[in-house]
Amino acid sequence: MTLAAELLEIAARIAREAGDLALRRRQEGVTVAATKSAAADIVTAADREVEAFVRAELARERPGDGFFGEESGAEQGESGITWVVDPIDGTVNYAYGIPAWAVSIAAVAGDADTAAWSALAGAVYNPVTGELFRASRDGGAWLGDRRLAVSEVGEAGGLVATGFGYDPETHGPALAQLSRVMPIARDVRRIGAASLDLASVAAGRVDAYYERGTHPWDHAAGVLLVEEAGGRVGGAPGGRPGNGMVIASSPAFFARLEPLLDYDR
Ligand code: IPD
User: Fold this and answer.
1) Rg for the chain, CA atoms, rounded
2) Which CATH number, 3.40.50.2300, 3.40.50.300, 3.40.30.10, 3.30.540.10, labels domain 3-147?
3) Is 165 in the pocket of ligand 1 (CB under 6 A)?
4) 245 alpha carbon to ligand 1 midpoint, in Å?
């Protein structure tokens, strides 16, 4: 078995167990533990508990690896592998009871730096639907036993998913950006979990996704899903996906979408 396949097995098992824990906590009732970057940017008690669970399981399975999680920060390892974890991506959906949230776990070669790392394995698990999206480098992207492939866009235009940051000051520019995209869009979706947006691109459920201001743990696993499904992923012009921008779609639609996204406003 390749290293990437081994890491994927670990990611997939832990994502399932972590997601099922989050689902049990959801059924018991959600408590908002704190706010982060803005009033709308919440963290629940379950986010913290689930991240602690994932971190402990990874430390048991792969003690020399590094860790980079949404709730508990970064810790460098010695093996050259770092785990990038969002315990509950789509926390606002989770808090409201909208069934679109996921555990996202990626294993990357390199330290906790999106500009330098290379993702080897990624699992995105939605415990409400029971769907586990998984990918390993050169091993394809999969949902159950179905190999995933991005969609090609027809003359009706692309079904485009996007998101809006928590900072209210970004909303005006984000809406202006969306208005520039509309001429090539058949419609727009705002699912509320970047990892599921990217998994949806990989599965051909939406034709494209773009968003400014996501964090590495939101997109690390999803970016690999799209790449392994034959898609193209990028960031600011010519660059890698990162906090500044994530764009994902088929290569042909990417070439139409990217020039419409203005990075400086
Ligand atoms: C958020 C979700 C949302 C996206 C935000 C993310 P969180 O992650 O992925 O869809 O628009 O940019 O921060 O806070 O729920 O883990």
Assistant:
1) 17
2) 3.30.540.10
3) yes
4) 13
